[in-house]
Write a structure and sequence with these properties.
Helices cover 42% and strands 12% of the residues. With 217 residues, it is an alpha/beta fold. The protein has 2 domains: 139 residues, 3-Layer(aba) Sandwich (Rossmann fold), CATH 3.40.50.1000; 67 residues. The two termini are 19 Å apart.
């Protein structure tokens, strides 16, 4: 049962705080061609929210049974950081403003991202966002990826906020399912994938940007 009181916010990262999913898509195309599989960027629409283990299962089921996942990860990671250094990756509108407003209100704040811990910490440090977070749960810190609720359950425990008092912010369908299954209210802010009626039914609110969320907390 939800309560009107909000004591904590739990954020996804890629596609929500950062406009990074398009860069991931570019890096997947680059690596796919380098490794002889052609453009693989379109597969992102089926894997958004998955951690590394979930993506490996997907690629071996849908691309090649012997898909060289370790090499693919190495190449895509290197290409991602090349783009990051060359052009930067913009923060989503309202990201820092929402985090600052939540902090000023005394809300507990966590990150629940399917990205690895080293990548998440690097991105938060680079954009001076680490100061806002009271805890982080990353894809390599859970055994089951989104849409399983494990990552959001852990994030709520980490910041000591029961799920009925916490709000998740997500862009991806798998993330909305994950947070809803953990008993949280979910605000969906779509990025690459427009939510279906099924996903909107699971969400508490739909917003066009994080700026729109500021008045809700």
């Amino acid at each position: 049962m939800y309560t009107d009181v909000i004591k904590g916010l739990v954020f996804d990262m890629d596609g929500l705080l950062f406009d990074s999913e398009r860069v991931v898509q570019q890096s997947w195309n680059y690596a796919g061609n380098l490794l002889g599989f052609g453009n693989l960027g379109e597969h992102i629409y089926h894997t958004i929210g998955m951690n590394r283990g979930g993506r490996e299962i997907y690629f071996r089921e849908h691309v090649d049974a012997d898909f060289p996942m370790e090499r693919f990860n190495e190449v895509t990671r290197a290409r991602y950081y090349e783009i990051l250094e060359q052009t930067g990756i913009p923060m989503k509108p309202g990201a820092k403003e929402l985090l600052r407003a939540a902090k000023e209100k005394g809300l507990r704040i966590a990150l629940a991202t399917s990205s690895s811990r080293d990548h998440a910490e690097a991105m938060l440090a680079r954009y001076d966002l680490a100061q806002f977070f009271d805890g982080c749960v990353c894809g390599d810190m859970v055994t089951r990826s989104k849409p399983d609720p494990e990552i959001y359950e852990k994030a709520c425990r980490l910041i000591d906020v029961p799920s009925q008092y916490a709000v998740a912010l997500e862009d991806a369908p798998s993330g909305v399912r994950s947070a809803a299954a953990a008993g949280m209210r979910v605000i969906v802010v779509p990025d690459l994938v427009e939510p279906s009626e099924e996903i909107l039914a699971l969400a508490w609110k739909r917003c066009d940007s994080l700026t729109d969320v500021i008045g809700m907390i």
